[in-house]
Amino acid sequence: MLSPEEIMQLVSSLVWLLAGVGVFIVGMNFMGDALEKSAGRGMKTLLEKISNNRFSGVGIGAGVTAIIQSSSATSVMVIGLVNAGVMTLMQATPIIMGANIGTTVTGVLVALKNDYFNMLMYLFAFAGVMMGFARSERVKISGSLFSGLGLIFVGLEVMSSEEAFGNPLVETVFTDIFSKINFPLLLILVGVIFTALIQSSSAATGVVITMVGTGVLPLDLALFIVLGANIGTCVTALLASVGANANSKRVALIHFTFNVIGTALFTALIWIFKEPAVSLLVSMFPSDDPMSLQMRVSAFHVIFNVTTTLILLPFVKQLVKYSTLVIKDKSDGETLSLRFVDERLLTMPPVALMQVKKEMDYMLGLVEENTRLSFVAMDAASSEHDERIRKNEQIIDFTNSALTKFLIKLSGELEQSDERTVGAYFHVLNDLERIGDHAENFHEIGIEMIGKNISFSSKAQSEIAAMRESVTQMFAIAKEAFESLNKEQLPALAALEEGVDAKKKELIASHFARLAEGNCNVDVSPYYSSVIVGLERVADHLVNVG
Fold first, then answer.
1. DSSP 273
2. Which carries the bigger pLDDT value, residue 398 or residue 30?
3. Quick one: how far is CA 362 from the chain centroid?
4. Is the pLDDT score of 31 beyond 90?
5. Is 101 in contact with 122 (CB distance < 8 Å)?
6. Hey, how many other C-beta atoms are within 10 angstroms of the C-beta on 111?
7. How far apart are CA 275 and CA 28, in angstroms?
8. How far apart are CA 523 and CA 40, in angstroms?
9. Mean pLDDT score of the chain, rounded to an integer?
10. Domains plus CATH for the chain?
11. b vs e for 275-297, b when ≥16 Cβ sit within 10 Å of the residue's Cβ?
12. In whole angstroms, what is the distance from residue 382 CA to residue 340 CA?
């Protein structure tokens, strides 16, 4: 039985340990956020070049994860990109595999720590705090990077201090605990639970490496906990896939399956060949100093992830097929959702902004289609396109509302130049939604005229057709200007809009002249005026979009 004094020592050591883990995770988050912001545009360019080449996918996954120091965060990003339609499952799977390799960088950093290296990192932390007072945004981001890197090693030092794992009593207690749970599957379960709780395999591996370095945890037991940590890291991705589309759930399933298969293979190998495996790691780093002890665990982590990737990379198609068999596509097509934008993309502001533009391109296409179909229905006195127009209008209204909310969230994460773009997008959204309303009005006019069994005269129809032709040309130019940011044809757009304004005045005057001469049905008059005025307003909004 432990005495009250020994219990207090254990509680104190546990508090120090938790404090060290907390500082370590905060440091990782600081560094990851800073690297993510500074590399945001580079990541956008990288993602735009994603291909079906498996090796480049592994490289992208490893590179991005090495930058943001979290395979969980990379997995969540990939789920967001798949959900938004930026990449396919075939493209996402190698990236997920590469993320597991990228996450080993943290373990290598942890293993390299020594007194001199720690001192340098502490200076980095102080320098980073001082840089946080600068006016330049770039200097502040660099300061967060330095602070984060320094805090990682402050956290590690706290964990390995005399007050935490350095306490002989703690070493005795942990040795006793691990002597009772030295069964491999139990150790894997410990790794899974611990990693799932702190939601970071890098932090969990860092704790294990520190425990091995202080002599609290034997190497042969540590290997199984590291294997469990690789399964535990999937919990974040599985949670992120909740509420996402079927493909995003498949990404999370592939990530989980990949790590389970790798863990199962290595568990069997180490279980059967434990002594040769431990001897190999010891021969790689034969010294008994803390750094060598730590490098053994770090080396195993690298070997595990690289080997698992090499084994499973040829089976990407099979993993994708398996995920589609397990997770079926939903047949319910009534639920409205954005096609190219996903909340998870808020962690990558430049990429999110790129996807917002795609969503608005799609919205512009729907607005153009509804405008065209409403006049087709009006000309043919037909209700054939009613359902299509109704569904398009629902999507237009939903997209306007959902994108507005998304842009509000995104605006606080962007650089100043991008904030101006967001401001412009708010105006474009409003213009597109108003054009959609006008298209709906044209459709309603057609329905009312069919109900009253009235129609425009041949002269009125030809006048409206001429005005529509100008608006159709404006749609094409505005669409080109917005999609490709091409301003060369904007003078032509402005000239067409001036022509539409002049045509409106001319046609209204012509219409009233026909009424005065008795050559026009007075019941049609309000509908004709509404169509002409509506087309003129659509032209105004298209100039704004351009």
1. S
2. 398
3. 20
4. no
5. no
6. 26
7. 34
8. 60
9. 81
10. 4-163+175-326 (no CATH), 343-545 (1.20.58.220)
11. eebbeebeeebeeeebeebbbbb
12. 33
Distance from CA of residue 112 to its chain's centroid?
A: 32
Task: Give the residue among 258, 263, 255, 254 at the shortest CA–CA distance from 229.
Answer: 263
Instruction: Give the C-alpha separation, 331 to 326, whole Å.
Output: 15
Q: By C-alpha distance, which of 234, 249, 151, 158 is closest to 200?
A: 234
Q: Which amino acid is at 147?
A: S
455 CB-contact burial (10 Å; exposed 0-12 / middle 13-18 / buried 19+): middle
Helix (H) / strand (E) containing 29: helix 4-38
| pLDDT value at residue 269 | 92
Closest CA to 544 of 486, 457, 474: 474
| pLDDT single digits (tens) 169-195 | 666 777 777 777 778 899 999 889 888
* Amino acid sitting at position 110: V
- pLDDT score, position 150: 84
Q: Which residue has the tokens 């996954």?
A: 61
Torsional sign, CA 237, 242, 245, 250 = positive
Strands (E), 441-521: none
The per-residue pLDDT for 311 is 93
Q: What is the pLDDT of residue 35?
A: 64
pLDDT in tens, 138-166: 788 788 888 887 887 788 778 777 666 66
Render pLDDT for 378-434 as a digit per residue (tens, 0 to 9): 777 777 778 888 898 899 999 899 898 988 888 876 666 677 888 888 888 999 999
Token pair of 457, please?
């005269």
What whole-number distance in Å separates Cα of residue 474 and Cα of residue 463? 17
Instruction: For residues 114 and 282, give the distance between their C-alpha atoms in angstroms, rounded to a whole number.
Output: 19
Higher-pLDDT residue of 156, 229: 229
**Nearest-angstrom CA–CA distance, 481 and 8:** 70
The number of angstroms, rounded, from the C-alpha of 375 to the middle of its chain's C-alpha atoms is 40
Would you state the structure tokens that stand for residue 260, as one six-digit string?
């389970």
φ/ψ of 155, rounded to 5, equals -60, -45
